[in-house]
Amino acid sequence: MLHTPHSRQHKGVALVSLCVALLASACGSSSKTSATTTAAPTATTPAAATTPAAATTPAAATTPAAATTPAASGTTAPAAGGTIKKGLKVYFIPKDTLNPYEVIADDGGTSALKELGGTVVVSSGTEDTAAAQIPSIQAAIADKADAIVIAGNDPDALCPSLAQAQAAGIKVVAFDSDVKCPDHLFINQADTEGIGRSQVDLLASQIDSTGEIAILSAAATATNQNAWIDFMKKQLADKYPNMKLVDVVYGNDDPATSLTVLQGLLSAHPNLKGIISPTTVGISTAAQYFSTHKDLAKKIVLTGLGLPSQMRAYIKDGTLKSFALWNPNDLGYLAGYAAASLASGVFTIKDGAKFTAGKLKDYTVSVPADGSPNVVLGLPQVFDLSNIDNFQF
Q1: 243-284 pLDDT, tens digit each
Q2: Which of 32, 208, 312, 377 has the fewest CB atoms lying closer than 10 Å?
């Protein structure tokens, strides 16, 4: 598993390397829960989350199954400033229910609530849109949830529904991809600027800091993707005058769409030297395509943010040399503890507030002048041939 620091003070944040995003199809809602009932119609299971999926279909990412078993009640865990209540119900609303990265993150949240004697309901749609997530927010309100943890598909469009949840007494935590709504805490996987700039550095080191490059992103409205891309552009302007960003394309975290826009990108820009794909779906789709088109793999350097479980084969066959990520299970785990702590009154959302997140130890809330109150999980990891077998998520 990815090793993250066990004790952090996150007033000012400094980072190393870099991310991810999600999938597509209908606006319907699906859910799974660690309790015996669910608030949305169908259930999913993360059984295949760590197995590489085919680039043209998300079928292997999740398999329909019955709801997971009840969480253990046990003893409530101590936290900074108070004790977390037993019996809490927390809704995890990922970008979608099919992406393996999201499944792993949601499992981390389920583990956290199980330790605390609470339950998690995982509910969202199968495409990366705000419209697909809103029914899950309404379900959480109807189910009288104690907290919502959400990876926002749109920074603004979810705010009216989340405001309704807050009016009903539900605490709101965003993770992975933030929203611009008031009175919520953001669990940031890593420093946003550090991710964006280091992605460019990782590519530059492999193409002699020169040539045309492109970005294969997730959804055009994804907050985290757009923030990283902004810092990629700044890093190019600040440090790499001989590298030119010629295009940004969006695969909507759907393998089929990602493949289509990748092929269009390659056709439109025959002189490409590098591609950054800061999304687990995009980089795995591109790697699979390059692995069967060795001439492209020799000509174009691919890097980005990926899951070791999905990218291991492509590192070993030389399709790409390196990529980066953090541990998504730890991200969900931290978000689960933060949500439970807020719902229990252990801390309030203010600068300098502290809470304890189980095995990840202590965290401190930071409130930047131009962003959401947040805590940062820790440092990302760069994966290559020398260490890829050491990580199993």
Answers
A1: 999 999 999 999 999 999 999 999 999 999 999 999 999 999
A2: 208
* Residue where a domain stops, chosen among 325, 341, 365: 325
Matching residue, tokens 């790499």: 240
- 57 lies in the same domain as 137: yes
Contacts of 6 (CB under 8 A, 6+ apart): 359, 360, 361
Total domain count for the chain? 2
Instruction: Give the model confidence (pLDDT) of 203-215 as tens digits.
Output: 999 999 999 999 9
Per-residue tokens: 331: 């991200």
Q: How far apart are CA 210 and CA 241, in angstroms?
A: 8
Q: Of the candidates 135, 112, 140, which has an alpha carbon nearest to the alpha carbon of residue 38?
A: 140
Residue whose entry in the numeric block shows the structure tokens 């269009």: 264
Same domain, 201 and 261: yes
Q: What is each CA distance from 85 to 99, 112, 115, 184, 361, in whole angstroms? A: 31, 13, 12, 20, 18
pLDDT score recorded for residue 11: 35
Domain coverage including residue 92: 30-189+327-378
CATH number at residue 144: 3.40.50.2300
Q: Select from 325, 360, 388 the last residue of a domain.
A: 325
pLDDT < 70 stretches in the chain: 1-81
CA distance 21 to 177: 8
